[in-house]
Specification:
alpha/beta; TIM Barrel; eight-stranded parallel β-barrel; 11 helices
């Protein structure tokens, strides 16, 4: 299982949100590239970056910050947030992003997703953010009526190998992950699942691995020191 340190960008700063709420933000650094280098130096083998401004607006707002991160690290990077047209996908892959995460647009436009997979294959992942078992979109502002597990099956059948599954109700709360929801996603979707949300301790990481996830994203707990990256690696 791969551990993905998270670098979330808002207003060009490295931040963490609680339950995805923009009103509940903690700023950890004014230099996201330096944070990315830190996780690489501590042994991180793959970074998870989110453009929170992009997720909210639907445009690649923090392109310059992301470019700075890509130039400052040598490990692969997966990126999500505001990626809603093929030009943006191409731009980020050309910049050096290893895996582009499509969220809102994957639900809104299956044709777009199919085209992206056809062109870029395994460089495309889908982000499924669930609130009460339903898919949320637009930076978690809107909750659809689509069941998250059923949607995961659909995109896997379209050729998506990797799904980043976030349980919004646990995200940033340091109360542990939703293991029941994770196990259902792992067992029913057919895809490789990267789990996100609620990771607060080394035990949580072990539980996520035991649930069958191929990866786990660790955010707030790294920044608060509740988890030491070298130790869990």
């Amino acid at each position: 299982m791969i551990i993905y340190p998270a670098v979330d960008i808002l207003d060009k700063k490295c931040v963490r949100l609680q339950k995805g709420e923009f009103s509940r933000v903690s700023v950890y650094s004014d230099d996201p590239a330096a944070v990315a280098r830190r996780w690489q130096d501590e042994g991180g083998e793959f970074l998870h970056i989110v453009d929170l401004d992009g997720a909210k607006t639907g445009a690649p707002v923090n392109r310059g910050v992301i470019s700075g991160i890509l130039k400052s690290v040598t490990i692969p990077v997966q990126l999500g947030g505001g990626i809603r047209d093929i030009q943006t996908v191409s731009m980020y892959i050309d910049m050096g992003v290893s895996r582009v995460i499509i969220g809102t647009k994957a639900l809104a436009s299956p044709d777009f997703l199919a085209g992206a997979v056809d062109k870029f294959a395994d460089k495309i992942a889908v982000g499924i953010d669930a609130k009460g078992g339903l898919v949320a979109t637009s930076g978690w502002v809107d909750v659809s009526e689509r069941n998250a597990v059923e949607f995961a099956k659909t995109v896997h059948n379209m050729g998506i190998k990797t799904i980043i599954y976030t349980d919004i109700d646990t995200d940033g709360m340091l109360n542990g992950p939703n293991l029941k929801g994770l196990r259902e996603m792992v067992n029913c979707s057919g895809a490789d699942i990267i789990a996100s949300g609620g990771i607060s301790s080394a035990k949580d990481v072990e539980n996520v691995r035991a649930a069958g996830a191929k990866g786990v994203i660790v955010g707030r707990a790294l920044y608060t020191g509740d988890i030491k990256l070298k130790e869990i690696l």
